[in-house]
């Protein structure tokens, strides 16, 4: 199926883009600027599109993001340190973000004759983000099939929805994903901080996968402390 991939520029979505390209299905990458403090991730999405030789479209959602207040990603709230699964990480939720992005992506896919929209939501997201869970993606696909009935035939593709991030690292390596050319850190500094939930999860995923992590972290050792603290709870 001709497939549009939603690509943030992070490890998961870039790996999905390379996987889709290897399968001969990739048509375009679509990214979203919703006023996230780590907007530099969009530069990595652009690099992926250039490397894969497909169009890249950035949708300006900054006015919408400004209305979705209360998240550490879009408001003047500190991004917490620690493991992704901690209750404190719920402050990184941007309400309904994925539902909004997916709706736009389905419209773009329909307008361009694509047959699928692929997103890299995965099992590690389920604890915090309700719009990454299988129940949501299944319901969303049903809703969009109704919304486009008689106009376009577009399906939601979520190959990672039931697997941990370490499996994405393995799959990404299989498809020659340039992991060093992806961005995960929510703090958006010069380097990955190594302390926020996404950095801890990223570092832990490479460790579990048994694949060398090429990422340069400002604090490369913190992830072990965060993981051990979770194990004690």
UniProtKB/TrEMBL annotation:
- Which pathway or pathways does this protein act in? Purine metabolism; 7-cyano-7-deazaguanine biosynthesis
Instruction: Provide the residue positions that the database annotates as binding Zn(2+).
Output: 185, 193, 196, 199
Q: What keywords appear on the UniProt entry? A: ATP-binding, Ligase, Metal-binding, Nucleotide-binding, Queuosine biosynthesis, Zinc
Going by the entry's taxonomy, the superkingdom of the source organism is recorded as: Bacteria
Recorded catalytic activity of this chain's protein: 7-carboxy-7-carbaguanine + NH4(+) + 2 ATP = 7-cyano-7-carbaguanine + 2 AMP + 2 diphosphate + 2 H(+)
EC numbers on record:
6.3.4.20
Keyword Ligase carried by entry: yes
Q: Where does ATP bind?
A: 7-17
Q: Write down the required cofactor(s).
A: Zn(2+)
Question: Which InterPro entries does the entry link to?
Answer: QueC, Rossmann-like_a/b/a_fold
Cite the cofactor comment: Binds 1 zinc ion per subunit.
What does the record give as the function of this protein? Catalyzes the ATP-dependent conversion of 7-carboxy-7-deazaguanine (CDG) to 7-cyano-7-deazaguanine (preQ(0)).
Query: To which protein family does this belong?
Result: Belongs to the QueC family.
User: Which PANTHER family does the annotation name?
Assistant: 7-CYANO-7-DEAZAGUANINE SYNTHASE
Q: What is this protein called?
A: 7-cyano-7-deazaguanine synthase
Originating species: Amylibacter marinus
What lineage does UniProt assign to this protein's organism?
Bacteria, Pseudomonadati, Pseudomonadota, Alphaproteobacteria, Rhodobacterales
